[in-house]
Amino acid sequence: MLMLKVKNLHVKVADKEILKGVDFELASGELHVVMGPNGSGKSTLALTIAGHPKYEVVNGRIAFEGEDITGAKPEERARKGIFLSFQHPVEVEGVKIIQFLQRVLKNLRGIDEVEAYDMIFRAVQELGLEGSILSRELNVGFSGGERKKLEMLQAYLVKPKLLILDEPDSGVDVDSLKVIAGVIAKLHSEGTSILLITHYGRILEYLNPQRVHVLKDGKLVVSGGMELVKLIEEKGFAAVDADGTAVKA
Amino acid sequence: MAQRSRLEEILKAGSLEEILGTAVPYPKEIELKGELTRDMVEELSRIKNEPEWMLRHRLNALELFQKLPMPRWVVGIEELDLENLTLYSKPEIGKEVKDWEDLPENIRATFERLNIPEIEKRFLSGLTAVFDSESVYSQLKGEFEKKGIIMLPMEEAVQKYPDMVKKYFGRVFPAGEHKFSALHHALWSGGVFVYVPKGVRIPFPVEAFFVIGSALEGQFEHTLLVADEGSYIHFIEGCSAPMYKGFSFHDGMVEIYAHRNATVKFTTIQNWSRNVINFNNKRAIIEENAYVEWIEGSIGSQITYTYPSSVLKGEGARTAQYVVSLSNGPFMKDTGAKTWHLAKNTSSKIVSKSISANGGINIYRGLVRILKGAKNSTATVSCDSLILDEESKAYTYPHNQSDEPSASIIHEATTGKLGEDKLFYMNSRGISEEEAKSLIVLGFISEILEGLPFEYVEVLKKVIELEFSEVGGVG
Ligand SMILES: Nc1ncnc2c1ncn2[C@@H]1O[C@H](COP(=O)(O)OP(=O)(O)O)[C@@H](O)[C@H]1O
Ligand SMILES: [Mg+2]
Asked: What is this structure's pTM?
């Protein structure tokens, strides 16, 4: 079954076209990687799939489990099973993490507060996080690495059908990287479909992707297997040109 | 049990209307309206069978009212036309009220809707209920009466304890301060007098609950609270009005006198319906080593002006003023706090938190004044504004002045906005815009909620949730 289908997607942000016709399909249970230079539109793609109102779809469509969700509200997409782990999670002052997570579990999995409380504490231990973060405010004063781990804790609790990860590995130390890769691997093994945006190949050592896409200047220029990652690591993104011909050669 | 389920009903309510109810007509025994004259004030005093000194007090205040100009900072109450208001309205009660059962059905239902009798039973040391211009119910649990605590409708205190009332009434907050304090003193009616004797600590809060029953009414209740040396009291003030067309005017006053080593906590939760113009005059005089804490929560009303004030008169006197104001919709809150440091080693803390949404406006107006000679006094002021959308606004006008070199004033202000990215983050976790707003607002004021009793916190949470739900917003 198809989990996600992106068809001829053109996206504008602040009156500038960023995505210029993106097509790809992700089958249920698969793990795909998206790579690409800075500013190529990777985060735009992730945020558009999750439904950020600033990212305007001017052409094309997004289907989730066969259903067109191009115009759906972000909270509806979340309820259908889409979860985005942000590249830059924002600080939300005043909202305590424990209360936030309880509400998320109630809304997305129908779990009552008391049960959620136990679940959250167990998950924190399983991921080797500090229990004290639960009484802090959402991302407030968090380091980059802490933010990424909190995103993973949420994904781990929510168990989405589709997990989109926007650079979960940037700005984190080696130990944290292991924790993060571990959560991704576990969710994947439990059936979650994954779209992993990354800049480096390192996190892929822990994972087993089916397919790699390269995004350049708002277009997927080439798709292939793990050999693409090696090529990019050795020769940089310059090795893949706008038509993908450099790779073919 | 029936009452207990009222709390559950409130917590399950789908709209504010379900909680506040709509106005029902009820019989009035006496009404005074029309032009505000000497005759009217004399008539009011006669109805209350007042001693000469109180009549004179009223007439003096009336003269001041007529002389004083409209304060410059009063904006937005052009609608206020005193001649159209019923300035005194006495509901028909009949016999003496010893129990809720003795009240007329309609009035009782209004308080029951708000779960007041049940809260009284489970949770309070005493309760006074004011409906329109009169205190219709006032009971102190017997065990506290034995300790010498006095809690009476203000009028009754004037009759029974004239010496004590004379000593404080209008001394903490004089009539001549401004036009509305003068108006209040001329027309005051209803309210409560509380005296806590030396060394007596009241374990559970005492509450006064005010209801304005119908439109085009003025309510001028007066609360006088005297805490003698070393005593303790927590006084809770609740305000509500059913929904009706037209507006009402509230010009209440609270005077607190905290003697040496006394502690007074005074909590107000104001949820008037959105057609009440709400004016408050609140002040405490705080003697040596005494402490007064104000919590001023303004949720409802069309316009509110309230600035709980503390006069730190004795050495080592302390105060804290927590002011929370929510303006959701085309409404305005002009709130803040005022503090005067008159003696050595006094300290004060002002925490103001305002939330503006859907076109709401909040104004913080504060004053901290440390007089020369108030050595080593400290004041901190923190003003946080949360603005939930582009149409809403928050302004702060702090005025801090110290004439004492060894004293310090620390001022901090923050403005937070609910930006698109924060909202999207919450949305992407399955949390709708309305839910996100109430979560953020409750988090923003959590520091202040922690100081309130559980029952009140639960109801407040519900009210705030309804404020931001699609169906519940009151326009
Ligand atoms: N919210 C935004 N406002 C304005 N420009 C944006 C916004 N988001 C992305 N862009 C622009 O779109 C382009 C692609 O950005 P992004 O999707 O973040 O790239 P990547 O994640 O691949 O680094 C950049 O030129 C960036 O400046
Ligand atoms: Mg990016």
From this structure: 0.87
